[in-house]
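Lecture 7 notes: from sequence to structure.
We start with the chain below.
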Amino acid sequence: MDDTQLLRYSRHILLDDLGIEGQERLLAARVLMVGAGGLGSSAGLFLGSAGVGQLTVVDHDVVDATNLQRQIAHNLVRVGTPKAESMREAIAAINPDVAVHTVTQRADGALLAELVAQADVVLDCTDNFATRHAINHTCFALGKPLVSGAAIRMDGQLSVYDPRDAASPCYACVFPQTAGAEETRCATMGVFAPLVGIVGTMQAAEALKIASGIGSTMAGRLLMLDGRRMEWTDIRLPRLHSCPVCGHR
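Predicted structure tokens for the same chain:
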């Protein structure tokens, strides 16, 4: 680190858990974030400000005026701009040292296979059930830790699915793809604005812990937030031996 970086990251360096070595690991980290909406806005800004070396942002959508109620990485000037590009501009305004790579196409299986292979940690900041399962399948196939968040209406949830941990379940253990769950999206159901910020910020925290090697992750746990009462429920999750994605590993 040069003098400018020592000053920029001084409050991280002062942490006994992190220090210079941990910050240097962050500067060398490669993070993939799928989704640059509500969850991705908060997660991406904190990943960038914390000094993640390389951040790849995948989102095929463009900024819309209805996004601005909660997607704090975007603004009125960038309405109509691809969300991934808007995220890159927002991070550059905070920390131009971060190399932000943007992919403005839908995250299908072939694209995920390429990008997940290059990442140290993956964040699922999407709102699409099929895409979530595709990300989970690819992460477990390639052995990459996945930080998954969701928020709708007044409810949020957060977990880490880590194939490096033999006891960790995967997303499909908790939300089976065959369950026929109905899609719930902000466009039709609404979402409390700060909720995506809370969950997205916690996703960034888990990803930074994984990338820097500090603390313990949330693997094997599901945190559920009731935003009406601001109450958290912490559920322990086992790996299912019958899971088609991770059960026989």
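Points to note: The chain is about 40% helix and 20% strand. The chain has one domain: 21-236.
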